[in-house]
Amino acid sequence: MKIFSRIYILVIAITLIALVAGFRIKADPTAHEDEKYSLSRDAEVILPLDAVLTAEPVISGIRAEYWEHIYDGAIQIKNDYILIHRDVDTNKIVKYIKEWRDIELPDVEIRPFTPPGGEYAWKRVVAFLDDADPGHFYTFYDVPEYPLICWEVRYPDGTTVMYDLKGIRIGHGIPVPTKE
């Protein structure tokens, strides 16, 4: 659970930095979730409470904010995100994409987990809500029951392995390129 407390502190720090820098970001649990592209270019952004900023690179004068859906502060919802592109000079929104589902997950006990194989790059608890979520990127050894809540572990060699909450290997992801 140490990793989740670090993520929580990081989220708070990034939010404070964004607010001090002049971004107009509000969290609103009653925000309308049914429209994907409903934001005007100069409007405030209303974010759900479980949106976590995970990337904010600046590319060619555009700040790309990538917000992930982190359910109950601990479970990343696969394929749920909000992408906002802002002009760095004016802070105006030039692109807004929202892929977000209003969900309730079953209560699960997330116990500390040490992945087999020694060193790993990162690990996180993820949820696949339906059979479309794994897409072409993940393969499970048996037909899973959805929603599927499991550990996703990335190893230094770029391989990704999926483990159930008991630590049993249940699948894998497409490996990412590495320098090795």
Secondary structure topology:
Elements lengths: L1 H19 L4 E3 L17 E3 L3 E5 L2 E2 L2 E10 L3 E13 L5 E7 L22 E7 L9 E3 L7 E7 L5 E4 L5 E5 L7
Parallel strand pairs: 1-2, 6-8
Antiparallel strand pairs: 3-5, 4-5, 5-6, 6-7, 8-10, 9-12, 10-11, 11-12
Would you kindly provide a written description of the structure presented here, covering whatever features stand out?
By secondary structure, this protein is mainly β. It has one helix spanning about 1-20; strands at about 25, 45, 50-55, 60, 60-70, 75-85, 95-100, 120-130, 140, 150-155, 160-165, 170-175. Strands 3, 4, 5, 6, 7, 8, 9, 10, 11 and 12 form a ten-stranded mixed β-sheet that branches. A hairpin with a 5-residue loop joins strand 11 (about 160-165) and strand 12. Residues about 1-40 have low confidence and may be disordered.
Question: How would you summarize this macromolecular structure in one to three sentences?
Answer:
With 180 residues, the chain is mainly beta. The chain has one helix at residues 2-20, and strands at 25-27, 45-47, 51-55, 58-59, 62-71, 75-87, 93-99, 122-128, 138-140, 148-154, 160-163, 169-173.
Average residue-wise pLDDT: 81
Spatial extent as radius of gyration: 18 Å
Overall 3D form: globular
Count of alpha/pi helices: 1
Beta-strand share of residues: 35-45%
End-to-end Cα distance: 31 Å
Total number of domains: 2
Structural class comes to: mainly beta
Number of strands: 12
What's the multimeric state? single chain
The stretches of 5 or more residues where confidence is low (pLDDT under 50) are: 1-41
Order of helices and strands: HEEEEEEEEEEEE
Largest sheet: 10 strands, mixed
Q: Helix proportion of residues, in percent?
A: 10-25%
